[in-house]
Amino acid sequence: xxxxxxxxxxxxxxxxxxxxxxxxxxxxxxxxxxxxxxxxxxxxxxxxxxxxxxxxxxxxxxxxxxxxxxxxxxxxxxxxxxxxxxxxxxxxxxxxxxxxxxxxxxxxxxxxxxxxxxxxxxxxxxxxxxxxxxxxxxxxxxxxxxxxxxxxxxxxxxxxxxxxxxxxxxxxxxxxxxxxxxxxxxxxxxxxxxxxxxxxxxxxxxxxxxxxxxxxxxxxxxxxxxxxxxxxxxxxxxxxxxxxxxxxxxxxxxxxxxxxxxxxxxxxxxxxxxxxxxxxxxxxxxxxxxxxxxxxxxxxxxxxxxxxxxxxxxxxxxxxxxxxx
Length: 325
Known about the structure:
Elements: H1 3-11, H2 15-68, H3 73-99, H4 105-122, H5 124-139, E1 147-150, E2 153-160, E3 164-169, E4 174-178, H6 179-184, E5 187-189, E6 195-204, H7 210-222, E7 234-240, E8 245-254, H8 257-277, H9 293-299, E9 302-304, E10 310-312
Antiparallel strand pairs: 1-2, 1-5, 2-3, 3-4, 6-8, 7-8, 9-10
Helix pairs in contact: 1-2, 2-3, 7-8
């Protein structure tokens, strides 16, 4: 008989209350024993978790420095973070198996897989952008500093993150483009090569000699700062307008948007100056009007009668003709 039962017999406490007190005492004793047994495991698990976090932080700059030698800074930064996160996740899994010896690492990974599927359905858009970001970093179609066009967004790439690509447009606006849009859309990388071809059109009068005008335009463009000499500028006849022979001036220059526009502006000025100096006319659009009989007659103070003949309606010296005169 327990000490509580003997004390209850001497004090007259009901047996039911004694049994309940004994159960509470046994539960508390069992819980304390469990805590005492698991305390070392919990301590070891905390140490393992702390070490994994510290290892992840220590690996981040090392991985980043190693990857930057061969890949882009964005790639190195993102995968350094993923390495750090992977170290922490491995520490969590190991800590769980230490605290609960009956749980195997495979079970933890399987449970995490089921959980990730549930999270995937809940955060589908976010995970799509993350996956697209990883694929973009592996493919490396463009880098920070490149000028690109994605959909209606045109500008300079500032940074490629795990979820979005940050682009600064040419008018100074900062645009965050989701990586799934960048990955799935057509990407035009203007600065993929050092040079890009630019062009503009100019019209000359039909009376001018075409070959001379083409030579003048090519020579003037070749002398412009920022225009490449190899390949040399070229001038082609692209059409015959109503009042002009249309020429297209093509040349290569720096691929950056502002440099290209500056070179194009200087080339237009140079061609205009060369044409003015050598008498090459650049006429405005000439529109030919064909007047009807009544309109032509009205210009000379006459009118067309219902029968089709032309009758005077009055002039500077005679005024209007009176009826019946």
